[in-house]
């Protein structure tokens, strides 16, 4: 696939661009995707307000302090996404080593005394002044672009990447993956696995690689379990997932409370800002990992289903963009983003409704959190960038 | 795009679609299908039931003066369950708390450990799920420190609670009558409906002795409930529903605080005097009963203790002291649980028995210095030779030999050592009709039987002691022989006799019985009601302390009435004869010295001294009295263990009580004209003192 020279290559790379061409570029954006992300951001902001308003009031702080920060994060995120959209994503290849290196350095730094533990996970670097960075979020971006570069190398005749490319991709993905496992951040590790598997598959790699990876993963998981390499809280979370009533005050507490909040929302919900479970802070981490419980309680099945549908729109547009991309690199970037956001959505919503074990992953575009918002918006920008430079026949 | 990539993208489409469907499907099940169920759980999640303790009722005297009331105290409690859930078992919290309260961590952790067979006090005898009070005299500043920094003190609460307060009106302590409260145990809690979720000490305490235990249900009241809205930290954000508690009712008793105080004072004074005279006088009782109604006016027991030690956790030393032999077991009421040989005070029963047995009421009987019962001589007190006399004089002078003869002759008629099939045993039977050897049925939870030894009892006792006696008969008493060979020989002979035929009701047993000696034991309460029965013409009451249960607002819940009295099987003439004789005891008889100068015109007191010999100890001093002789109102009994002769120690105390009641020694009479209040008193203000 050396072909695929789309219009984008001309437009995006021009040093002198007219206003007309810029507007034409705007017209080429994926608007349904844009509207869905914007809608998720607005709903997310409302839910963040609902989740934090009472607690902040009780603490005597600005009740909308977190909302304001979240809005600021969203604005910065949209700007970041816009910049990525405008940039020619193919140029990213040049920066991939730098991006990758930065991600690895960040992840390493977390493991040094620079790293901090926030809400039980050791995955932060506190910069000071109330700012902190979660390098694992940016590592997801790095991973997607890196794998796209390696697996999307133009090849002659071959349908999929060769053994050398696959091994290189696995090795390079393995370094940040291992660092994240050491934090330990099980959720992000699972995202990494989903992204690697998905991108390998779409790149056209041989089936044996896929089955080999899945089999190896299962074996590794079994080994980890049997050799007791998991932290006790992780085992508790799995036990609680199997039987949430076993320890309603301990590990099962989050799962139990999340289900109660969502279930009590019923079909139509209790109304935005009127969730009693939410205002009573029964669900921990409610503005971040458990924000879906606010939606479930206050907006009911209808509202929560709309949020899932909006995320569905994002994923659908992402897959569509992957299909229509100008080159394999673009296809793989879009695929990586879809696998990342898709798995994270399934895991995050799934854990609040009791079909997945609890891990610390935010809901894309909805949860509070600077690093996650920025990373998601970059992903959104990547999708748009691939779309803007899609194949001409569309 | 190559076909493989294209195909796999289609698969990914399907996967994403399936995943979304799974999520929405599960949400449908959770929110739409099971929504109602989760709504219910959510409601429980957000509300919590709090038990609002009812204020416990007061215990009042006959004039409405509180003997027990409540005062407000700032109590700091610790929730064990919350602490145990912490990583270090709550040690840091307790150390911090100890710092604020100015005690040590060790002290607090001792107080909150659970009592068990091997755990000594201080420990928590109540339910482990209740807040455990660790300090009940907290000053408000420190309490505020704890409440303001709740995040530093999880599981610790400081709040106002009502604790029991003992104002001691008229100096009345009455600790053994009033009883005490202790934390309710988990089993009791489970039995009581609606107390599963408990509040604070008001409901968690239960009467464990005395009136607090007897009338616990009435005093306790009904706790209220408050359904409060809480957040996930358990902080209360509002009230959803409320049912106010019903305060416990007050218990009006027949105890007259003034008389009770006077009785305690008189008892203490006479015991102090006896001790100054060199007698041990280790314990005593003073009882006053209304002979017309069977109600108790005063019940004093010595030694006593300060009941406030029960509030807020009792220490091991304090607890040991309450039951310590050295301290005289102040927890035990000598009135209801003290069992002593009654000595000559028992003769009212013996006279009645002798007359019923056919001895003429107006006959003349010889009172020799000693009388041979079988092969042993039984002597009068100090062997005094008094000559022929009436039964009247026999009581006044306390002749013993007349009663020995009655008893011996009855014993012989019953067949002696080989008794008839149905021996008549008139003295034993009469004693039982006087209420000895059985519980009086007073409204208190613990009471002793006393002992009326008879043929059956002797046989049982023989079987229990046979082994030891036969061993003594065989091996002698070498330990005793070292110092007192004569005594060892005597003991060996007695053991040999008891080993072989200890079950036999011997003539000596019958003789001793007739004068309240030997194995006869009575409680002061039994004796006072027997004298009350002689005084009131034969009515043997089940004594009552409680008069009525009255709500704090004054409405009567119920009156407490004694069951109809039993009747003595004694002719009214005989009772009247005995009353006259007892009336002379204080004027010309054994108690004339103790009552010399007493104002008999104001109140004509009659009575009987008792000096009971106790093997290896000094005599038990008794005086049982009633008055006025012509129109009796009260019976008063004083007993002092190891107090010497009845006239020496008990009689002066009885005199002092009568003087206080009628004001015959100057001073304001405690009971005007000897009258008790005839109506229920007005209720004093609210339960808690200001």
Helix content of chain B: 25-40%
- The average pLDDT value of chain A, as a whole number, equals 84
Biggest sheet character of chain B: 8 strands, mixed
Largest sheet, spatial ordering of strands of chain A: 1-2-3
Question: Quick one: how many beta strands of chain B?
Answer: 24
Description:
In chain A, 67% of the residues lie in helices and 4% in strands. Chain A contains 15 helices and three strands. The radius of gyration of chain A is 21 Å and the shape is globular. Chain A is mainly alpha-helical and 394 residues long. Chain A has helices at residues 8-11, 19-27, 31-58, 65-86, 92-111, 135-151, 163-182, 186-203, 207-226, 232-242, 252-265, 276-279, 291-324, 328-352, 370-388; strands at 115-118, 121-128, 131-133. By secondary structure, chain B is α+β, with helices and mostly antiparallel strands. Among the domains of chain B are: 73-113 and 124-165; 455-504, no CATH class. In chain B, helix 4 (91-101) crosses helix 5 and helix 15 crosses helix 23. The N and C termini of chain B lie far apart (91 Å). The model of chain B is unreliable at 195-203 and 686-690 (pLDDT under 50). At the A-B interface, helix 8, helix 11, helix 12, helix 13 and helix 14 of A face helix 1 and helix 2 of B.
